Amino acid sequence: MASLLRRAREAADGGGVPPTSLIFDCDPGVDDAIALFQAFGAPQALDLLAITTVAGNVGASLTARNARLIRQIAGRLDVPVVPGCERPMVRPPVEAGHFHGESGLGHLPIFEPEAPAYPGHAVDFIVETLMSRPEKTVSLAVTGPMTNLAMAMVREPRIVPRIKAVSAMGGARREGGNITASAEYNIYADPHAAQIVAASGCPLVMLGLDVTHQVRATAERRARIAALPTETARAATNLLTFADEVERRLGTGDDPPQHDLCAIAYLIDPSLFLTVPCRLSVETGSELTLGHTAVEFRLAAGEAGNARWATKADAQGVFDLLTETLARGPVRPA
Ligand code: BDR
Ligand code: CA
Questions:
Q1: Integer Cα distance of 74 and 233 in angstroms
Q2: Could you tell me if the CB of 32 is within 6 A of ligand 1?
Q3: Which of 3, 239, 265, 325 is the most buried (most CB within 10 A)?
């Protein structure tokens, strides 16, 4: 246990390597909010250039507001929140309020954040950042529908070879779907965007349900977080308690999986996950299996594949990292 904690501390500290320049594209969302706390709380590992938001779990104005609210609790007003696409590329919007509550943040007390959103659009921000920074120095984490990134690729295809890495929460292979029998929510919510990203040739790591279902906020893990005296831990406890109640209401009998946290944890410490090269494509034609991720591990000789697919997670390592990060968050006023 002591060595695991030491490793989590070193990972959150960046392990002596320069921080990864990151655009975090999300649709908060209860589990996006936990992932945001992880990203905001690890400045030695992640140089957050912006949080870009997209319509997904709830509407676009709420996801942008929620990102600003979490930013304020985390005390990171230095990071711009840039609102993005208000609907998927082709299909009608599909929200997930049943998992995230009406506000998108469960039972977290909602307030109007002090600092405004960045006066620009996420798609422009992604294009301008990738075109103006040195090649292969900027990574993206995507934990919502992939609309913003796909739109940026369509708008300016020259960004693709400039991307260092994309770490995306989405898809399912072994686990089946969580919104339909065969599709995971983020991919189902904008399958056309996901297919554009998958086919683009960018360096893509997919953290789908196969691993996120291994990373669960058990009662013991929640209790460790609840015992911390910080604002971020208090908010995280509220969010995780809500997520646990949702799982109980749905009758899964399981502790709540922390899907989006995986995409950030991977960027901080890739050794927490086992990933395998694959050929990935997304179903965009069939009504029955819309958003299904077809993942083929049997590559032809010399074929590199177009993505890496995560198959195994060190769940305790991911939670040690989160707990270590939350322990350093702003402390409540006495
Ligand atoms: C994904 O769907 C959303 O509801 C969550 O925020 C997560 O990104 C899990 O399937
Ligand atoms: Ca999400």
A1: 10
A2: yes
A3: 265
Ligand 2 centroid to 55 CA: how many Å? 10
In the DSSP assignment, the letter for residue 104 is S
H-only helix segments in the chain: 2-12, 30-40, 60-74, 97-100, 122-132, 147-155, 185-189, 191-200, 209-212, 219-226, 231-250, 259-268, 315-327
CATH 3.90.245.10 fits 2-327, yes or no: yes
Specify the pLDDT at position 299: 98
Q: Is the CB of 31 under 6 A from ligand 1?
A: yes
- 194-205 per-position pLDDT tens digit: 999 999 999 999
The answer to whether residue 4 scores a pLDDT higher than 80 is: no
Domain boundaries, the chain: 2-327
Q: How far apart are CA 224 and CA 208, in angstroms?
A: 26
Q: Compute φ and ψ for 272, nearest 5 degrees.
A: -75, -10
Distance 9 CA to ligand 2 centre (A): 25
Residues paired with 79 in a beta bridge? none
Cβ–ligand 1 contact at 260 (below 6 Å): yes
Distance between CA 198 and CA 168 in Å, rounded?
Answer: 11
